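Weekly structure sync, notes
Attendees: PL (lead), two postdocs, one rotation student
Agenda item 3: pending single-chain targets
PL asked that the sequence for the first pending target be pasted directly into the notes so everyone works from the same version. It is reproduced below exactly as submitted, 892 residues in total.
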Amino acid sequence: MRTDTPSTPLTIYRKDYIAPGFWVDTVEMGFDLDPIATHVATRMTMRRNPESSEKDIVLFGESLKLLQLRINGVSVKKSSYSIENGILRIRNAPDELTLDIETLIQPAKNTSLSGLYVSNNNFFTQCEAEGFRKITFFPDRPDVMAKYTVMLRGDKKKYPVLLSNGNLIAEGDLPGGRHFAKWEDPFKKPSYLFALVAGKLVCQQEKYKLKSGRKVLLQVWVEDGNLDKTQHAMDSLKNSIRWDEERFGLELDLDRFMIVAVSDFNMGAMENKGLNIFNTKYVLANPSIATDVDYAGIESVVGHEYFHNWTGNRVTCRDWFQLSLKEGLTVFRDQEFSADLVGTATGRAVKRIEDVRLLRQVQFSEDAGPMAHPVRPDSFVEINNFYTVTIYEKGSEVVRMYYTLLGHDGFRKGMDLYFQRHDGQAVECDDFRAAMADSSGRNLKQFERWYSQAGTPRVKVESSYDKASKTYELTLSQSCPATPGQSKKLPFHIPVAVGLLNSNGKDLVLNLEGQATPSKATTVVLELTSAKQTFRFTGVAKKPVPSILRNFSAPVVLEYEYTDEELGHLLAHDSDAFNRWEAGQRLAMRRLVKLTKSVLQGEALELDSMFVEALRSTLNDRTLDPSFRELVLTLPSEAMVAEEFKEVNPQAIHQARQFMRSSLTQQLRADLLTAYEENLTPGKYSPDAVSAAKRGLKNLALSYLLEWPEDATFALAKTQFDEAQNMTDRLAALTALTNFSGSAKNAKVSAQALQKFFRDFKKEALVIDKWFMLQGTARTTDAAKVRELMKHPAFTLSNPNRARSLAFSFCNANPSRFHAADGSGYALWADLVVALNKLNPQVAARLARSLDRWRKYPKALQVQMKAALQRVADTSKLSKDVLEVVTKALAS
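Predicted structure, written out during the meeting:
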């Protein structure tokens, strides 16, 4: 299953999968908790797998001290086992056995935050993907599923709360001021879902009645002092339970469900069976510390982890190559959950637009770089590097295409069959595809290519209208660029949702030639399965304007030569809200590309009135939801503009985008002021969708207004900062003030506001993260400023949230400053990656990806980027997490 050569890191290949030599039926674990030396006793009942070619017992371990090893109560002779490269191999084992292992671990020294570690004097675990092997020797792979019973013992005063998976079956006191808690998980699970929490925590709890009438206990555990910030997480959990019952008929299967918040955490959250461990960022919220975006994020992540109970826990993945089986499916479910909770068509569209913006900005870029991989990868060096937007967001789009092809009821039938067939099993992506195909009677064999082929397909569309026959044709052709290891791509099965608008902006009823029965639909899904296909619509009285790829029905790049007039028509009239927004983005992108070229050529910059008036019309259209108007007025990011160029000049792109923003401000000033005033939300703060939408549009208007150096608009932002009663408005005002390019007097006021913000919230870690992030992305922040901020007493690289707030925001979200001509940004990046590599390889590897597309930049920058990459690659004791990223980048 593993291959290795002295000159390359260990590589694991999907094609080399071998079933485990032994299954594990039950696991009993005992923990004597101590931060310096925790004693772990593990007992497994095992039986030989007759279908495996592996004859030995193979157990994985990392950073462990082995104390005892016994089979059926008898110590295993040293001649019968070996430990090499993190693998404990036991030879000549009986077909059925009880294996006892005792290990010693050091949680306080575990800065990787994987396995069992200590945060603020409390114990936490993170076992996905391969953290359990840092606790005990075990067949630590997702296809080994067992039932767990766990005994926790510790000092009662230091660790009054002892939690693990499943249901609490016993607890009590022990001699010497110690106590115990015994937990039992009645469901089989892989080791990556194991969890343990111990420490001084308090909880909000509620009894909740399920649809079946059964009552369950819901708990949100936090550190003392944070209990007033848990209500939204609790409400989100209850909404998640209710939604999964109603939408998919899935019920919570345990007697209790627990959420625990920890500030030191590599991920957003983890779906451990019944004991979900969360980053505090996705639990803690009240109006004084959390923005509307934070509230939405908590709702989404709580939903995501709860939905994993079925799509990930009850049915899990056979191996880590199938990771998207659980993650892509669960992202789709949490996206639908968030959209359904808004409850309006526009709200659903806004959620869809937000999801697609993330996909395009991050995943499309990943598809075009050296770390490009299929939704189901074929190989990896370090699995933690494959918790990517391709696995999650593109994986979700793959699931959404099933939904588009099969419809609401057809998709539900497929989900029901999937659970009926595979509950309690570890399966593959193909098993999910088979359930969808068999339940619907559809041939989805070609659809497998979405899992096996990397890259973003491009769909080119050509149109023709025949006035005499009143027919309209769309010819679709597809292609996909080469990606690492895949030079040629076969045609995908691509659903392309299409509508046609007449000159009045109304949808036409579509009659697609070849349909068995006439349709009354105004949107049809064209299924592109060949390299090129033509679709003909009949009964089209006049030449229409096509609305193509409605609701973004497939994760592709659409190529169609719309005129500005056609895009303006769609922006004003399209009934598909996504494509209405998309028309505005295309108009903006077309101009941003032109402006960037003008900057590069030293030409004068101009912004045409057609575009300005189109945005003015949208901004002033009170029939449109404020959240939708905000999205239309939000320009494509600098990162998205960069994707339009073969060679990227970050400074030119930044200058072009800033020119567009200031020009829009100059010409729309009165309209922006009106939008600001009309969308004030006086009174008590509420994170509901209507209020959040108004704040979003108001604060976007404020950010535009401060693009024009006027004392009046600066005073507007300062007043909002001083008088804001919620974090959304206060942070928006501070961001606008920090990026204001006015007089020295105003700059001094902005600096004072920044310091006041820190003083007011210095005890709120999540707010201080926002303070660092704001400065990391500020237009005036350069590498020297980041180094200065890293010396601030509140900054530390050891906490992932704090590291991401400054280091990641500068390197990934401040391109014009990060890519400074003197290479200072790259030198900073190298220092950060090397430092993080020693502390936390997972976090270091994620930051390392900031330079993985270095060849897309001008030669002068390439030289400096390559030198920084090589410096990291040459670092001694480099983790395989970082080594995989920089090696692939250098080889690209």
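Discussion points:
- Residues 1-7 have pLDDT under 50 and may be disordered.
- The two ends are 26 Å apart (CA to CA).
Action: rotation student to compare against the earlier draft before next sync.
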